[in-house]
Request: fold
Amino acid sequence: MTNQTVLVLDFGGQYKELIARRVREAGVFSFILSGDTSVEKIREYKPIGIILTGGPSSVYAENAPICERKLFELGVPVLGICYGMQLMCHVLGGCVQRGETREYGRTECEVNAECALFEELESRQTVLMSHTDRIFGLPDGFYAAAKTNACSVAAFGNDEAGLYGLQFHPEVVHTQNGQAIINNFLYKVCGAKGDYNMTDYIETQINQTREKVGDKRVLLALSGGVDSSVCAALLSKAIPGRLVCIFVDHGFMRKDEGDQIEAIFSKRDLEFIRVDASERFLAKLKGISDPEQKRKIIGSEFIKVFEEQAKQLGNVEFLAQGTIYPDIIESGTDKAAVIKSHHNVGGLPDIMNFEGIIEPLKGLFKDEVRVVGKQLGLPGYLVNRQPFPGPGLAIRIIGEVTKEKCDLLREADAIVREELDKLRNKPNQYFAVLTNVRSVGVMGDGRTYDYTVAVRAVKTSDFMTAEFMRIPYNTLERISRRITNEVDGINRVVYDITDKPPSTVEWE
Reply:
């Protein structure tokens, strides 16, 4: 990429990806590196700005993540957020200590509009604080640019050096005008041009793929998820006629999804191979109830099926994967991309001796992948598809997986998604779970002893935390009535009202 770049240096903060996404949403390319990346390495990226993330440590503690003082002498603007601000203060000779009062959650903050970060903003802002330590002494050349009742230095700046810090988190939706503050840093301090967009990204990846592949062939495991589907659409445009997609149908897809995937990609300029391996996968899972065992068995069998099909193709020189940026980010490390297991064919490159790996989406976040998919002409129902685990319905069935249970869950899940799709205020993720609970019921004049289905629906901005959705009672009633009337074998429907944490979004 030749775009202007802002580097996000990670010091263990849970919001590192969110910071990078906010920068990209402002039209500036961002890239995440470990906080201990050397200044020499940072220079190679030629960044127009650097952002230091938050983190759980105290800067004065032994073995706390640290950075070189030379980082602040590069002549490149730097913005420190939370721990990043305290680190800047500490390294440059200021004083950071444990505060008498902790600040967590939404807090009223008074900002100095003369500071570049707060230009054109009201003097009173609501921000998200999350800290115990705070700044008690400023480094030379710095001034306090914001304060709260409990924190006299909620932001600081050194205009001459282009160094700024925020004790609060501008990247989260809880901070009023957070995106405007980030934009001010990017455009008023760093001099950003806003030259990053998805159209340029697509063209860059098409050109790079053509240059790398030449007239050779590329193999892709097409799971039908958003990432692999967009990867297939992009590569079919870059190297028409030379992409081979193997769709391993393990029998755990949602209702009609296998047919939808075949209908979409059999019309594209690629070779589409669908393998019905459902009986094979079910046989491997017979008697298995442990969720982790299910995942390992499905992943291992997927690789075997894929390898068998690939060997029948003859020479295919490159392996493509739908790896996206969050898949390759590891906090505290500076490692290259690690090939994902299961649906992105972990382990296959060594087995099959490919010349190389093609990962055209590895620089993108999920929301950006969806934008690329739309620009490449993929239908909305695929691009906006609900998140779906690689093992599919097998880990939404509690206990042993059987064909009967898969068929029951497929029908119940389709009803849940159809009804919740009608809501104006939709959850971010919603699906059905077939529990291992059977209970007594009555239908007509007869007694039943059938399965219980649980409905899961959550609201979230990042999937690190989630709240259960307050679904209207009339919608829940309609879902329950339809499932018990239309799906023979289910006589009870319950609604999961647990947040994440303490639970996870998925049940297994």
About this structure: The chain has three domains: 5-189, 198-383, 396-495. The domain at 396-495 is CATH 3.30.300.10 (GMP Synthetase; Chain A, domain 3). The two ends are 39 Å apart (CA to CA).
